[in-house]
Known about the structure:
CATH superfamily: Uncharacterized conserved protein DUF2267
CATH topology: Globin-like
Helix content: over 70%
Structural class: mainly alpha
Largest sheet: none
CATH class: Mainly Alpha
Radius of gyration: 13 Å
Amino acid sequence: MDQKELVHAVAERTRLSREESADITWAVLEGLAEQLSEGEARRLATDLPDMLAEQLPGPRRRRQGAHPVMVTDFIRQVSERTGLTYHDARAGTAAVLATLRERLSEEDYSHVIGQLPAGYSDLVTAAG
């Protein structure tokens, strides 16, 4: 999966501009990496375009183990990181997760979503 394809897929799923889609894609990926265990964050990074993977939090900036955040709190954090409204951050977060579901192997996606609270799966299901 290349970065342009990922951002384009997010833009197509939302009414966000390409720049906003790029911002929200980065904010969601960074936020996910912060929640996942070190091993799962590394696994996710191997599936991402090099430029994005290199910018994800490294082991020194991470705590051990998974540190999941409730989906409403996560969306609020994404909104704060991007400057988007909560509604746009929710739509963008759902779009990024839905795109990951399509682009990652079923096993890799299951590993990511399995470390997060159930609300994330519901968000993806709602996004289609």
